[in-house]
Amino acid sequence: MASHVPFLAVRPDAQFSTKARDFASTNGALTTDTDAPESAIMPTIHAPKLPAPVAFTLTLLLSLTISVFLYSLIADTAGYELASVSRDLTAQWQVGIIFGWKVASLAAAWASGYDWQDLTALTLLSNTPYYHLLHTFYLLSPTAVLSALSIDLLSIALPFFLFRRSASSTTAAEFKPSSRAVVHDPSVLLLVTLFGSAIYATTLFASFNTWLPVYMIQYFDKILSLGRVRESNLFLLSTLALPLGAASTQFVFVPAVLASNRLLKALDPITAPVKFDPKTATLAQTVAWNLGLGPEGFRARTRVLIKRTGVLVLASSVNTTLRVLGTVEGTEAAGVLGWASVWGLAAGATGVLYGWVAEE
């Protein structure tokens, strides 16, 4: 049976300093119109008192155990459907590559510093292209696809929740209402989620109704039908993409918003960014500012958006390419790259447009 391993990218660890925690525990209000770096807004949640090598080994073993155990449970149901489209992976070198990829993915996740919520969102976003392909073009049932995707998510989320609970910028519980106003406002998050799902749906809809069907037939030998492609309309795709909108909001939008506040200035006014004055700025300075560049380089919000959007594009594209080309029978590199490019484009567009929303 094909391996089901998510792609996880690396981000440097960032922790909330003692000075920052002391400030966050006060009653001072924080506003959201001045940028602060991502590292300045990350409270620390202490992980279990285990040496890092031991904790990572336990994470790896638990993740593998969850995957093997749960896939064995669905072997007599969804397993047959998944196996029907899978390559024959019997050679030792093939198994070694799959196992090595699993270990490398978990090691990257361990080094990334993302918390389990970020990793769950990233895993969903980077694995959905693979399962959407199986459902739409290979006619796998929703039960088979959702069962396998759920195992992928659980095998990542649970081990990291237990052994690597370092909080990321998505954790804002210690911030006062003014800094939580956006990220904890259900109506705002709902609108951003709908916006994100619409971006993914529009990208897929445009591809389905132009070049993609002919391209898929040309480069995928075992495609069974294009019926589900023809049945896909914008409303249906938007509905199916709602989890993607929620995940991209969690992974990209929320950290970017939290990176834009006066926390840095409150902690150390010397490091606060210089205020941009459009009346005295030169043309070059104005262009640089509109692109997110300030005297110190990229502003915090822009840095977070670029970094997380880049991770999302890379994860969506590379993971899709590796999984489809390595596990789906009858696929060619050119075809897989075309399919992956659709999702990479959707991920990139989501990050760019979230940046526009965050500036409003």
Number of domains: 1
Overall spatial form: globular
Low-confidence sequence ranges: 1-46, 168-179, 262-272
Helix tally? 16
Instruction: Give the termini distance in whole angstroms.
Output: 47 Å
Alpha-beta classification: mainly alpha
Say how many strands there are: 2
SSE pattern, N- to C-terminal: HHHHHHHHHHHHHHEEHH
**Nearest-integer average pLDDT:** 78
| Strand arrangement across the biggest beta sheet | 1-2
Strand content: under 5%
Largest beta-sheet details: 2 strands, antiparallel
Which radius of gyration do the C-alpha atoms yield?
22 Å
Helix content bin: 55-70%
Assembly classification: single chain
Overview of the structural elements:
With 360 residues, the protein is mainly alpha-helical. It has one domain (18-359). It has 16 helices and 2 strands. The chain has a two-stranded antiparallel sheet with strand order 1-2. Strand 1 (293-294) and strand 2 (297-298) form a beta hairpin. Helix 3 (78-84) crosses helix 6 (142-163), helix 5 (116-137) packs across helix 15 (300-327) and helix 12 (242-258) crosses helix 16. The model is unreliable at 1-46, 168-179 and 262-272 (pLDDT under 50).
Short description:
By secondary structure, the protein is mainly α. The chain contains 16 helices and two strands.
Q: Features of this protein?
A:
mainly alpha; globular; 360 residues; 16 helices
Give the secondary structure arrangement, pairings included.
Blueprint: H1 18-24, H2 52-73, H3 78-84, H4 92-112, H5 116-137, H6 142-163, H7 177-180, H8 186-208, H9 212-219, H10 227-231, H11 234-240, H12 242-258, H13 263-267, H14 283-290, E1 293-294, E2 297-298, H15 300-327, H16 333-359
Antiparallel strand pairs: 1-2
